[in-house]
Structure formats: structure tokens, C-alpha cells
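Need the bound structure for flavin-adenine dinucleotide, inputs here:
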Amino acid sequence: MSEHLSYVGKRMPKPDLAGKVTGEAKYTEDLVIPGMLEGRILRSPHAHALIKSIDISKAKALPGVVCVLTHKDCPEQKFSRSTMAEALPEFAFSGERQDQYILSEKARYVGDWIAAVAAEDIYAAERALELIEVEYEVLPAVLDPFSAMAKDAPKVHDDVKANVAFEMDHPFNTGDVDKAFAEADAVAEFSGVNSRQKHLHLETDAAIAYFEADSRLVIVSPSQGPHLAKKHLTRRVFTDLDDGDIRWISPTIGGGFGARLALGVEPVAVLLARASKRPVRVTSTREEDFSGYSSRTDQHQTIRVAATKDGKLLAVEQKIVSDAGAYLSHSATTSIVNMQKTLGLLRCDNIRGHLTVAYTNTPTTSGFRGYGNPEGAFVFQQALDRLAEKIGMDPMEFRLRNLKQVGDPSCFVPSVLEHTKLEECIRLGAERFGWSQKWTGWGEKREGRYRRGVGMSILTHASGAGGFLLEHSSAVMKVLSDGTLNLIVSPCEMGQGILGALAQVGAESSGLRYEQVRVTTGDTDVTMFDIGSHASRSMLVIGNAVAAAGAKVKDQIKALAVAKFELRQVSATAEQIDVREGRVFLTDNPKIGFDVREIAYDAIYNFGAEGGQIVATGSYLSTSHHPNHQAAFAEVEVDTETGQVTVARYVVAHDIGRAINPLLVEAQLEGSAVQGIGFALTEDFVIDPVSGEVLSDSLLTYRLPTTMDVPDMDNLLVEDPLPAGPYGAKGVGEAGLVNPAPSIANAVYDAVGIRIHSLPMSADKVLWALRHGDQAAKGSSRVSGQHL
Amino acid sequence: MGRVIQPFEFVEPSTIDEALGLAAAEGSRLFAGGCELVLSMRRGEVRYRRLVSIMGVGGLGGFRAHPKHGLEFGAQVKIRQLANHIWVGKRWAALHEAIEQLHPPHIMNMGTVVGNLCSAVPYYDLPTSLYAHRAVIRIGDGRSDRELPIDDFYIGPRMTALGRGEMVTSIFVPPPLADAGSAFKKIYKARRRSNDLHKINAAAYVALDADKETIVDATLVIGSVGAKPVRIAKAETVLRGQSAGHAAYEAAAEIAAKAVEPMTDAAWVEEIRSEWIRLLARDVLEQAASRARSRHDPAEDAHLAF
Ligand SMILES: Cc1cc2nc3c(=O)[nH]c(=O)nc-3n(C[C@H](O)[C@H](O)[C@H](O)COP(=O)(O)OP(=O)(O)OC[C@H]3O[C@@H](n4cnc5c(N)ncnc54)[C@H](O)[C@@H]3O)c2cc1C
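Answer from helper R.:
Posting the output first, comments after.
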């Protein structure tokens, strides 16, 4: 295809860059609505307690306090924080547990929301919290899923038996797993659990709610999917409201990483705004964000795999016990997606997965970039390495022999895999990394205090969940008189750069100038329906909608250009005309042409004749999840005396289809790899095993990797356009977080012959395992995510 | 659990007297770079109605480092200033390493070294390194001055020996002996209990005789293992007079591992903790001694000092 591309594939600056750099970008906390009150939430100091009484009189009497609300003031039906279920068909939706009130009638974790205050300023609101007198009857708490499901364990929710929030067999279980295990030449097993990684978006949870003059409700919050959030809020929380009664605005978002797919403080803001009849903003602190907001779900897993001696994968079995925390939110769906990605990665005829999700008296867990895939890969990729070791095969070779090919069932099994470049990713990454020189075989003993080792991992991830979620999106384009393109689209810009990539697609497809694209997003009154930015979907789904709109704009310009050429004594049909970079010209004589503004101006300001601005909408419905793939190679150095693991080198090759903007793709890969290295080595969400309090509630004690901790990294792009993608693009937003933990874990094993069963693989755990052998890991501790 | 800080008064006096007078009132506190104070105020651990900045007070900004005369810096000196000074790196390597490993750049730019010490936060690193260098704390009350060895400065977690109406005016760090070196190391952990800290640090100072064969003096300090850094006096005594070599450091490290009190009742916490104490102690001694051996007479490069 000798296709000419003006913008696609180029390293263009993002349109929102200037605002971010200068500080001009307006986040929810920057906005000032005249007459706005400040809202704060009182949180439970107990992991599990009945609320005997709440005395709000003193708080109410404090000057400046406008209203104080408790569970008695909340709507009576329960809801789930997760908004995702709204994008599922009704039959799937009914399985979702609606399990919480805005303000709780019982404290279910340290940090549970008990009361809310709105006051003239934030200081009065804060002081009022201290004046609310709550009488608690402290109950025994369950702090990990296993004791939660034990006989006679205290119940987190009275109506839930044995604290089992959710249970299912993997819907696509297939084959005869027991037979396959019985007949296999080799069987391997690995058990492990990930930690509750924190999203740590720099902007903590916040929302503003107010009523416009016609009493329409406006919500301003950093939502990743305001259209769905609106549906959820009206269907599940404030059922007296309907779609048209709310205008939801997502301004600049200070990071999302999946946290903003669940309702945050928005319902509290609405509750307070309704009660006070004033605009209200509710904010939270970093510490509150640590203890009360969401994190990754800790999924305890056992994975068994079987193979023939020549390396054919015969069976995979995965058992998951997930810890939802106090409320279900995304914990069940992330666990299901874990099974889909884990059991669906490789060719295998016999698969079986089973999931149980338990409630505990710990903070609610939720969706996080990767959505189950990093959790599963940490365990699965180590199980695969164990199996490769048993049959004495290079782990890369073992994976290569079991890759899915085009035509195989895809990872969401009912659909067919239409496109994969995973093999190319593995080969390219291996070559850059030097796998064939660095991998020296199983069981090689290394000497010395500092030992090096290498490991690898592969993945499949979705580019949207077409065929599963409601994957359609629409874009609107209008052309201004100077050839400026107003692009109205629905993704939420959380820093990932999607607006830039969509602007590139918009300019490319319409033929207008990138520099003249003005993107509008984030306001449900302006943008078309879309389920939000997640699941690595925006580029593929919204990008296709933009490309469709752009093609229509280009056609309109071409049609209008015929007359313009005629005025210049040039006769051409629309088919003989092209538009590129803001210029209209003849395809076979590009010198003959003119600036598109001539057409754009006349389209609007054509006094007399039929007027009409150039405007188009484009829609796209994705019916497949169009997987993107990745291979990663890690080299680590283990200090065998302290247990410290250092990543020396990390090479990634990603099956991107086409990189609309390679700069942004590399940034996504780099950023997510750093997040993945934190997940692998340093980030530890520590819950006190007695009180249930979050101990790692600051950036001093929850150790996020910084730029100083980043290893020598290479991000390679494998570009083979996906026919269904906009200009061939696939998604890339999440995948990078998946491979670091398993590849580093496999490299640690190569270096020192031990495997760590829980994340993070911190120095103390590594040293423990070195001293006691990895078999000594005695199962999970009372604190989820920590093996003793 | 995280709080919104209530409004407070912020005053910027220009003399020590004035500053201490203002800070003596109930609900008032001295304020330097604010890195620790703002954090603990926001966490709701402390509350103040008035913060008294010492950053405009005259006479607290002095900074001198000379291989023969020692290192001396006032209460206003930022961590970054020390990090950038060649003599700190050359002669007070333990302090320099502790600073180098303090990663957030803005904390280096805003935070003072004295503020770091006065916070008395048990897991901070600079106190451990300054124990190794046997720093002397100079305390003023506006009229007279007194000096306290750093060993006597901490009286409990987040508690110093400063009396009401007193402040630290400067720190003096004596010059190391001619053939001496120092080192600092730290290590983080993930698994812990509530009363346990998330890291361990260690620092050592080793001075050798002119032949660089015998240890003539040593300091060994372990930090982040309790309310304040712990000097391993017994190890220091044992080291003195011994020939400089692995055996000596190993033996001293064993003593250190046994000397530090456990922090929890969990065997898995304590096993790793005492092993790390041993390793860190051995490594910092080894490193300090190696620096001592590779040194040449400071008089030779004294001309570079100013
Ligand atoms: C994110 C982060 C990471 C950090 N990492 C590290 C690290 O890795 N290692 C490490 O060692 N430290 C670390 N620190 C600590 C940091 O170095 C200190 O918080 C900072 O140096 C304190 O100095 P300050 O000038 O800001 O003090 P302030 O916050 O202004 O004051 C701290 C305390 O000292 C008192 N005080 C200040 N000056 C005087 C004085 N002259 N006399 C008497 N009392 C006084 C104040 O009243 C207050 O109680 C970190 C801090 C943060 C926030």
C-alpha cells in the first residue's frame, strides 16, 4: 500500500501540552462556582462496626456549616461504585451486586464513609467532621478472603452467605482437563498473589455538583466515562433523575489508571448539593485516597499447566480467590478478565477456570490499568516457566510453540483471532535483548554475591471489549471558516495523549491541518455517547469514528471543490480531487489547487445560495476485541546477601498495528513499564493485620518508582496494520503494565533459583526465600498480598 | 487519616530572639523548609496556629567545609547546598551518601539539614550519617549557646533534647582523621507490622593508622530500628586496635545484629531485620575502610578548599 500519510505515524506534539506545562489546565479542584460550598466526608476509624447513633447537632451548630448528612439522608436503594456494568447487556448486568449506600449504615472498613458535611469553607467543613459524634459498636473484622470464607466468620454484609460476593466457572471452560493432566508428560503449578497496587493519580478524588437555573444538575468530576457514570447514577443512585436531567463534565483529569471507572465522591456531592441547594465541591486528601478509594484487587491464584515432552501445552487450570474489600465494585470483573487473558493467551484445548470473590473488612478494590491481566500474568507466566523447565525447554521456545495463530479462537473465546504479531514481537525483542546469548539454560548455578538472570513474558490484551461491552462511539466534526477543524469526541484525556492521536486521525482523514484541529471533549451535553476511556479502547473505537467523520468531511470538501475549480477554468470531478494538509488539489497534478479555507469560508458565508457549514458525524461499532500483543525481556541483578533486586535492562516489543503517534505509544509503554516495575518490586499496600488500617498511606511509605529507578529500556514497535483499526492502529494503554512482574520474576529465578509467591518482590521477601527456599512460603498471611 | 490544614499565622521574624519568643507561645512552632511540618500537619498528627519561619533570621545561613577545620552549617542550609559541595563528598562521605539517596529533588531544594535532624523522625537518614561523623548540635536560646553531641540530642520518637525557647542554630561536624573514611547505606522492605519501620539504614566511620593497617577509631550506627539511631559502642571498642580486614568488620557486624532490640514479635520480621543489620554494618565498615585506605593526606589538597 503506497499510501501517503501526512500526520499518521509522525511524532506530533499533543494539543493539551501547553496547558499541562504552564499549569493553565483546569482540574476539578481549580474550578470556582460562585456560591460554592466545600464538602468533606467523615470516615470510619474501625474496620467493622455497627453505628449505634450519630449526633450531628454540634457539627450543625458550628458557624459556616450548611448541612450534615448521614445514611438516613441517602437514597434507599443500593448501588455499586463500578459504572462498568452499565455497558453490559441486561442479562450480564443482573449478576452485578449492588451492595452499598452513599453513606454507610455500618462501617465495613477503616475509611468507610459515615457522614458528609457541606460548609461555607473547607476549614469549617473539616472542623465539623470532628464535631460529629458517632457511637460505634466495634465488631470482629475479617481482613483476608480465606478467613472471610471460613466457617462462622463475621459477616461483612448481613445478606451475603459466607462472605462470598461472587462465584463462577469460567464461561468458556472447555475440553477434558482432568484427562489432559493425567496423560501429560509434565505438569507444573504455581501459586501466587498480587498486591493491591494503588493508582496514585496525582489528582485525588474530587467532584462538584450544582444546579443550573432550570434546576438541571451539573456534575464536574474527573470521570473516565461520564456518559456511563450518568446512566449509572440515574439508574442506581438517584432514580428520580433521568438521562436528560444531568450534564456531566470531565475537565482536565489528573490521571485515571482505571480508578475513575468507579463512582468516587460524585454521589456525595450531589447529595450535599440537593440538601443545601447550593453548588458543592467534595474533595479528599492523599491519605484518604489511600485508605478509602480503590486499588488493584488482590487475586490469590493457583495455576496448573500440563504439556507433552516436546512442548505442546495440553491444559491450563486457574483457580482464583479475589479479595473485593468491603464492596464489590470492579473486583469480580477484573478477576473474570484475568481468566480470559490467562486462559486465552496460548493455544490449548483443555482449559478450566474458577473464581471466587470474597468480601473483607478492607478498602474496596477496583479496576486498574491492565484490568486483571497483570494479576494473572504474574502467576501464569511463572507456571509456564516451571513447565518449560520440567521438559527442559528454553522458555521462549516453549511459548513460541504454543502461540495462537490467525483463525484460532481469540482470548475472549467465542470470537476468532484475526490478527496477531506476537511471534514477531518475541523474535524482535529477543534479538534486541540478546536472549540467545543471555539465556544459558535451566539450573545453571551462578556464583558470587551479585547474580544476574534473564526472564521473559508475553501477553495478549484487548483493544476495547467489542462483542462483550457496548463498544460504539461517535465523533462530530465541523469546519470553521478558516479551515479549522472542530473535533468533538468522547475520550477522557487523563494524560495518555489520546486527544493528540485522535487529532492526527482527524486531520489525516479530513485532509485538514493538524495545527488547526481544536478538540472538544468531556461534556456529555456536547459529546456523543461513548462508554469512556478504558480497556485500551479509545484509539481503536473512537479513532475509527473520527476517521469515518473525517472521510465525510473530505468528501464534502471535494464536492464543493468541483465548482471552485470550475471558476478557475479547471474541470475535475470529485474523484479527481484530493485534500491534504489543508490544501485542495488535483490528484494527478498536485500543483493545481488552493487552500481549503476558500471552501470552508464560502460554505458558511455564501450569501444568497444555499448556506451550510461543513459538518459530519462518524460512528463506529466494534464487534471484536482486536487483541494487541507484547513480549518482554528482563535482565535483573540480585544481591544475594540483602535480597535486593535491580532491573538492569528491560526490552519490550509491542504489536501495535500502527503507531498513530510513535512518541505517544512509546510514552505509554514506558510509563506503564515503570508502573509495572513498581508493581513488581517496590509498591506495597500494607494493611495492619489487627486493626485493618492502611499503613502505607503516604508516598513516603508506599514506594512508587521515580525516574531515578528506571532501568535501561527499549520499546520496539511491531507495525503491521490491523485491517479493522483506524489506519491500522491497535490499543497500547494498558499492556505495558502486564509483563514487568512476570518477566522480572522469571529472571530472579534464573539468577538465584527461587520464586517469590507474592508481589512486590521486595528485598526482604527475596532474602527470606533465599534463606528458606521458596517452598517455605507458608501460604498467605492475615494481610492479603503477603506471604509468610 | 488525612486532614485539611486549618488556617494558621505565618510569621517571618529577623532575629533569633524574636523567633524563639514567637515560637514559645502555645500552638506555635519553628518552621524551616516545611517539608516535614506540612506533611505531619496534613496527616493530622500535629496542629499549629502559628508557624514561625526561621528562614529570614540573620546569622543562620553560614556554611563552611574545610578538611582540616571541619564542616559547619547553619539552620537555614538546604540539603541541596551540602550535596553540591566537593568537600562534603570527599571528607564526609556518609553524610554525602545519605543525601545522594534522598531522591525527591524538591525535598532537597526546600528541606534543611537541621530541619531533618529536628524532626526526629525515626526513619530519616541524615541523623544516622551524622551520628557516624559525631556531629555536635549547637543550640541557642537567643542569649547563650550550648553544645550537645548528637548522641544526646534524641530523647524519644519525635522528641529532642531542645528545651522550650531553644533552637538549633548550627551543626558542627569535626574533621575526620587524616586516614579515615565513612559510608552510608540503606535498604527498604515491604513486609512489616504496624510498629515496625519500612527501612533500615547504617553508617560507619573508620580511621586507620598511618600505615593503613590498624583501625585507630571507628563509629558504627544503625538507624530506623527504633526511636533513634543506635550507636554500636561495643563494636566500636572491639574494632579499635584491630587490623583492618574483613574479619574485623564481620565480627563488628555480628555484634551490631545482636545489639539492636527487636521491634516486633514476628519472627519473619526479625530474622530479616537482624540479617540486614549485620550486612549493612559489615558493608558500611568495609566501604568506610576502603575509603580510608585510598585516601591521601588531606593537607595535600587543602588548597582546593576555598
Ligand atoms: C517525600 C519525602 C521524602 C523524603 N526522603 C527522605 C530520605 O530519603 N531520607 C531522609 O533522611 N529524609 C527524607 N525526607 C525528610 C526531609 O529531608 C525532611 O523533611 C526535611 O529535611 C526537613 O527539613 P525542613 O527544613 O523542611 O524542616 P521543617 O519541616 O520546616 O521542620 C521540621 C521540624 O524541625 C523543627 N525545626 C526546624 N528547624 C529547626 C531549628 N533550627 N531548631 C529547632 N527546631 C527546628 C520544626 O519545628 C519541625 O518540628 C523526606 C521527606 C519527604 C517529604
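Comments: The two ends of chain A are 58 Å apart (CA to CA). Residues 298-466+624-776 of chain A form a domain with the Aldehyde Oxidoreductase; domain 4 fold (CATH 3.30.365.10).
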